[in-house]
Amino acid sequence: VLVRGLNLPERVRYTVFYGAPFFRVKLVDLDSASTRLLRILAGVFKDDERLKPYISNVEKYADRLRAIIKENLSTMKSSAEDVVVRECEILLPDLRTYIQGSGRASRLHAGGITKGASILLEDEELASAFIKRASYYDVEFKGRGEVDFEKLKGEIDRSRRGVEVGEGEPVKPALLIVESPTKARQIARFFGQPSMKAFRGDDGEVALVAYEVATGNYVMTVTASLGHVVDLVRDRGFFGVLVKGNRYVPVYGTIKRCRSCDYQYVGDGGCPKCKEEGGGAPVDSKSRIEILRRLARDVEFVIVGTDPDAEGEKIAWDLKILLKPCAREVKRAEFHEVTRKAVVQALSQLRDVDERLVEAQIVRRVEDRWDGFSLSRRLWNHFKDYSLSAGRVQSPVLGWIIKRAEEGKKRKTVTVIDEFSLTIEGLASREPILEISLVERRMDEETPPPPYTTDSLLRDANAILKLPVDKTMQLAQDLFENGLITYHRTDSTRVSERGLVVAKEYLKEDFTPRTWEAESAHEAIRPTRPLDRASLVRLVEEGVIGLSAELTPSHLALYDLVFRRFMASQCLPVSVVREVYRIRADGVETVEVRVVDVKGRAHQLYKYMLPSVKPPLPKGTHRVKARILRLPKEPPYTQSDVIKLMKERGIGRPSTYATIIQKLLLRGYVEEVGGRLKPTEKGIKVYSHLNQHYGRFVSEERTRQLEEKMSMIEKGLLDHQEALNEIYHEVRSHILPVGEEHVPAEATPD
Q1: pTM
Q2: Which of 31, 291, 360, 373 would give a disulfide with 713, using CB separation of 3.0 to 4.6 Å?
Q3: Annotated catalytic residue: which of 487, 606, 637, 728?
């Protein structure tokens, strides 16, 4: 506490902590402990099953929690590695005081940043807990034997030469632009307490918030673009693209958002959705662009840190084009997790915008516009219903749902025997006599599944947590922006070196390193720290982990799913015992294979890797009570089923899986009943017309071919203008000839 505010960079070279700073909670303090402290302490003793029923309502069960915590304190039982439990007291490491104190030896000045050394003297138990907690702040310690003290002393002295006259490598002002305000806040907080400034647009409302921090190499202003700032216009050329021979020039305009209905559009003349009923002037991204230009002029060096995918690359390219006249240099920073270490590394490895990725994204957007608008006009002309719209990717998915609904009209008879957890198809008896014989008993070793990709996360979240896919993507976005999981739009199962370190720290002797994919620019979805759900909640409560948005129970449930699947993927194989039975009843014979036992940490963490464990069936002859059910031969698809099909058949991408399903629901082509997707009359009508007259344009094969072309453009194997030329002539020849682009006043495209 005494050293806070001390700023003598030329004098203070070393800090020595004789004893690490800790918060101390004694047994006698528990009687007056707040509900927040009780929640924290309950997390320290998370392995005590007696606490679990009471943690959800601490206010109501405070006395019961106190009693259980006191008992744990007395017996010194805790699995938490970042605290020390001693007789009648708990010691919680105080990293903030340590960071503030040690920071006195390393200060920012006009010529750069001074280097300092911090020395911690502590007994092994306390030091171990302190170092563990320090890792949550990305603070790493070195043992005495790992440090060359003469070399360190020389570096410390050299960093102070010229401090008084401001010599040395000057600190560079820079502007870092990310997509969301949450991510901007989170990044700014990595580098101390940021100063904040709000910028107002022409309408007088706050259009942008910026944070100023010192990172060591930069005095950095961090702000957010709020996603895309421009999109294709509608009223120039062919639906926003100028056609000049065999060359195609997209025309972009700023994005406007209607204050009344929240609809986003490009162009003048008011909101095309609610027409004259729109609530005044829209919110225009032009205001944000002007503010970003002003900030760029102030610093002259711009870094764009948008999401690490093709869409993020396109936003980075847009910002580069818009801000280049105001800045000497515009660079790209790419990070796959929002942690201090990842951001610092990205800032040290800046690159140019990848124009191949941008070109592929331009082709994807233009093709989507041309196909969608052209097919929509054909629907308008045929049905005289201007609320209809079509998309090349959504149409085959709609076809799957319709086909499955037709198959579901066929029924099958099944007999359910609850006593044996058994279902037999084709048997229709309420009191069947079963002859059960054991055919085989085998023991297998099974490798756990890889960590999540976007499609597998969406499937599990829908099947296990009953979350719709759009909700899952929003929750995953929040977890990513708060630095809790890696980037969630990915089709890679690769685990980085950092990911292996996280798994090893948590699993210890159960750890078996698996990278899954050897070559990939992206990484699987995984937690950024070795913290299970209970530990995360405790550290957020303590303020050790700072978040820019509150976590809901749904956030925590999804985080828990990601954490368990990833940790399971790095575990030893599990031992599985299966029994194979032959069952005869009333002339029906069937084979039942059931898992009767599983051993292994992977299954404890992620039980969904195998069918549910069931008890062995009793051998011999048995008369049993049964229920007879008439069920659809093939039940309608769930959102999880559709995601799996999209992945298997090469339809869509990680960033569009959820969007495709959501569009079908919003357009009223599909409805969800009891967790299953069923086509509406409107959806069947639209699909039948499209499939009959424009089948080749809404087929799976064409969608796969276009995705392959995008991939070739990204790799530099296909010129994007050549791809656009081919798509243009296909659309003009088979869907919408020249001169038929008129948009009726009643229509709402997109």
Answers
A1: 0.91
A2: 360
A3: 487
